[in-house]
Amino acid sequence: MTASFRDPCPRTVKNSVPSFSGDNQFRAWPREKHGEPRPNKKTLDLRLVNERVKLIDGVVGRARQGFKRIRSGSVRSASQVVPPELWQQIFSYLSTSLDVKAVSLTCTCFRQLAQPLLFSKMSIHPAPPALALHSFQTNKYRRRASQRLEFFLSPLIAPAVRECWIHSPSVEDDGLPTDLLMDTIFDGLRKLPNLKVLGCQSVRLTSKRLEALHALTLTTVTLESCLSDLTDFTLHPALPLSSVTFRYHDSSSRDGILPPLFSLFLSPCHLQRLSATSPEILSAITLRRPFTRLLQLELPADCLADFESFVAALSHLPNLERITLTTNPDGRPPPRATALSALPTSLLPHLNFYRGPHNYAALFSYTGRMHTLELTLPAKAHRLLHTLSHLPPETHHALDFLSFRLAGPVPTSLLESVHTLLPALRTLGINDPAVQPSHLHALLTCTAPRPHIRSFRIRVEGRGRDNPWIPPMEEASDAVDCFKKIRAEVERVYPGLGTLKLLYGVEGGAVVWRRDGATGKLVQAAILQ
């Protein structure tokens, strides 16, 4: 039983402030001054409202005065003190367009400096899709393409353009609007002072358009199925490019026209990276004098079928360091009969990187300087070990990076066998197949401690491997659970491990753990999706 007690003699509050409840009842008021009447309820409400209005007017007034000082320039902000050229260099490090948009909305000064960076990449489709070629929308489409080009060539946007891609889905003919518009596009490229990257798809490279390219300061060019009707290619010197990519199919070659066309973009004094999908690139390389600055080369594996042309082309690359062999789009490995037994010992003395099928790994490792092998096509476990065992002895003790893909089951002795063959290995990556946590635990259990390993990457299998519609965060959660199960074995086998990456899914997702310098333990650092 509870009881309530009330004070029979409540105390009187003197000199108190006015207080109002929800019904505006009068509670107390200070003692009246001499000759001043006691205010009633209506007068008190009016005084209180006036005081609040004065307070709000004061706040708004101060804000207005500050805004006027900023608009008039009497107060200089940090954005006005720092030179605009320095801000532009800072903004150039922004990686995504979302960051650029956020900066452009910060203030007026930043809007004028950062907004043009949103248009650093220009993509133009001068011709409509094939289905609309004969419709009434064709002229409208081309008119919009012209307006888009005019916008990018405006004085405010043109200095910000760094990259341009020109696509021409339809066939060009002399005199047609598409051909005239294409000439206008190439003439307009002269108004882009900072253009460095140019990509062309299905564009006819006429003499006039090639002359327009010579007026630019390009460093990177990508050509995809671009042909030319020139008969004398010696009239145009080679462009001083540092990186060139040729994407051509076998059907694009017409009576050997590709090699002289390719040579127009290959400068022996400037070229540093070359990528091609057509074997015709071998003839283009031999047409020039040696490329002394070329360091990276990407070729189709079919180039090795012509042994003499392949060796002749490589002899023009004395300082090559990285070579990549691409395979067919269907992923079929090259025939073993085309695998060469050996290359001349004087060829490629500085080669130290190979990416491609395991069939040719030993072929390019003869120099003994190879330190990186990336085997791209899946191979059986026993064939992989056979390839690694046939590497030169110098490579066994020099190789520090290895990544591969397996086809079929993963034997529990795989890690131990790889580490035994490559004792100097520091980075190991198994991109395929996905292994279950229990099987990964068995792989680590059968492996002796390897303190020299600094990075380990492997694909793990989640709980819903048969369900292709698993949310990415759920797949990442499965990878985290897998780490909890194998953590003790990972610490035992790789005590010096600095980075552990567990791959999951088919979209390139991964969970990354890194060694914490303070605690010395592997802690989760990032989730890549």
TrEMBL record:
Signal peptide stretch: none
InterPro entries referenced in this protein's UniProt entry, alphabetically: F-box-like_dom_sf, F-box_dom
Segments forming domain F-box: 82-124
Pfam families recorded: F-box-like
Domain of life of the source: Eukaryota
Protein name according to UniProt: F-box domain-containing protein
Originating species: Mycena albidolilacea
